[in-house]
Specification:
Globin-like, 58% helix
């Protein structure tokens, strides 16, 4: 008997073993039979359907590389696996437990088929190969669906947390501002009030970064409001601010060409400040930091250079990832107040929300450069939000 036919004929014994294995795990100990089996039957039927469909060498190669092919059986298999993973997440199964279910399913089917002593057949190897391909594909889809839902839940939690923290923080900041007006505090009290106000500002920046992060992760895109502006004027203002804040550093500014366009001035100020702050934070006191702005036809290019240590290739590849900090530079990296490792991520999101980009290069010869490219005309290109429009507007 061919393996696909065996699975159809013995689907109940296979499901009984699946159920018993799921019950043996901590999360499944109190679940009933229907919940334990979940979408197992659908996965098996979809696997059989996929195994029975003709498959060319090209399609098999594409499948092994997780490339989509026009296959109704594959679509059904993916759908069943996706729903199973989401169901298991809701029932408290962790990811290793979900993976182990597929491992147990594979072992059960092949053992039961072997116990049935199938007639020797040249097609047996192909049957096992097709079965393993389908189970691997189903497992990959389940893992992807599980992790995607976990990430969405985490990002939604961060969005709600950040949003809800703003009200008590605003109350703290307002109280600190009003206290000196209500009473005539002593000198030491003034110092305490000033510390409260300063720390409230630091927390406000952290919450703002978290809100920006969760908006992009939830598909809302970075909110921007564009208007005509001159990037050269904004960049020079920021240069002067950083030079005043860091009088001991060698900071230079250079601009050339036409630098006007339609952008969100506040968001670009935030992006450039993040990149400049990163350059100063991650380079020694003696290193040059330079801000250059150049008009180049339909785009404006902004470069932040620093002569600090080379960023290793392994770190350079992930430097724009959220909540990532480099760790292997020769010079100590001071943690900036109000920073939670989102500065470069937010800078890239701001550029992308303007239809632009941010890239980084680093070498001994050329130093480290972050290059921001912005089209003069804004291009809106946001993803599909998970939250509805009213929820996004209030974040």
């Amino acid at each position: 008997m061919r393996l696909a036919d065996f699975i159809i004929s013995n689907i109940e014994p296979i499901l009984m073993e699946w159920e018993a294995f799921a019950r043996s795990m901590t999360s499944g100990g109190t679940m009933d039979a229907l919940a334990l089996r979940d979408h197992a039957g659908d996965i098996l039927l979809a696997t059989v359907r996929d195994m029975r469909l003709p498959q060319s060498r090209t399609e098999r190669a594409a499948k092994s590389r997780s490339r989509p092919i026009d296959n109704a059986g594959e679509a059904t298999l993916n759908g069943a696996s996706e729903q199973h993973a989401i169901g298991r997440l809701g029932s408290g199964f962790d990811l290793p437990e979900v993976v182990s279910e597929y491992r147990a399913l594979r072992a059960s089917v092949l053992r039961l088929w072997d116990d049935s002593r199938p007639d020797p057949d040249d097609s047996a190897v192909d049957d096992v190969t097709r079965f393993n391909e389908s189970i691997d594909q189903s497992l990959a889809k389940a893992v992807s669906s599980y992790t995607k839902r976990v990430n969405q839940s985490r990002d939604l939690f961060l969005a709600i947390l950040s949003h809800d923290l703003r009200n008590p923080l605003n109350s703290i900041a307002m109280s600190a501002a009003l206290l000196p007006r209500l009473v005539k505090p002593a000198a030491d009290t003034n110092e305490v009030v000033a510390q409260i106000a300063t720390n409230a500002d630091v927390m406000a920046r952290m919450i703002s970064d978290l809100l920006d992060y969760t908006r992009t992760r939830l598909g809302a895109g970075m909110p921007v409001h564009v208007a005509p502006m001159d990037l050269g004027i904004l960049s020079e203002e920021l240069f002067k601010e950083f030079r005043t804040a860091h009088p001991s550093r060698n900071i230079r500014f250079q601009s050339e060409g036409e630098l006007s366009g339609h952008w969100d001035a506040d968001r670009l100020r935030q992006a450039i400040s993040n990149v400049m702050g990163n350059a100063i934070q991650h380079s020694p006191q003696s290193a040059l930091v330079e801000l250059r702005v150049m008009g180049e036809g339909p785009i404006v290019r902004l470069v932040v250079y620093n002569g600090g240590s080379v960023i290793p290739p392994g770190e350079l590849a992930s430097i724009f990832d959220p909540l990532v900090r480099g760790s292997s530079a020769e010079h100590p990296r001071q943690h900036r107040p109000g920073s939670i490792g989102l500065g470069l991520y937010i800078a890239r999101q701001i550029a992308q929300s303007h239809g632009g980009s941010v890239d980084a290069t680093s070498s001994e010869e050329a130093g480290t450069e972050f290059t921001v490219r912005l089209p003069r005309e804004f291009i809106k290109d946001f993803g599909q939000p998970i939250l509805d429009e009213n929820q996004l507007r209030t974040m």
